[in-house]
Fold this protein.
Amino acid sequence: MEFALKIAKSVAQAIGPEKTGFRISPYGTFNDLEAFEGTDEFYTELASKLSRLGLIYIHVIDHGKGDVKRLVREFFKQTYILSQGYDIDRAEADLAEGKGDLVAFGRPFIGNPDYVERAKAKIPLDNFDATKLYTPGPEGYVDYPLRSK
């Protein structure tokens, strides 16, 4: 935790806390990471300390485990961004219930460059091709079709 806080504090001092956000992924398993005993408590404490730094936002990837999403909301006082697997209906419901202030839609935007228009018109979404992420060339980033026109 100290390393994360040191980096957040250094960045906030360099560019201002109003320009500094922090993304966390409690219970994430990317690159063989594993949950650990005390995960909820760890992220609750981290969120509280990041809030005291005055960072503009915290972006939480929700893996649907533990009580961490609610706890971070309770202890981080600035803008709270929800993410992971959201559709419009779930986003609207969670925002209406005060679970967050904003919702991030990363993957839907990659596979649907016209995501906003599709969402408004309730046009079905295309899936993005995860095998083409972080690879050279434009394929998988700029070759998805526009279907809302």
About this structure: Residues 3 and 22 are 13 Å apart (CA to CA). Strands lie at 21-24, 57-61, 79-83, 102-103.
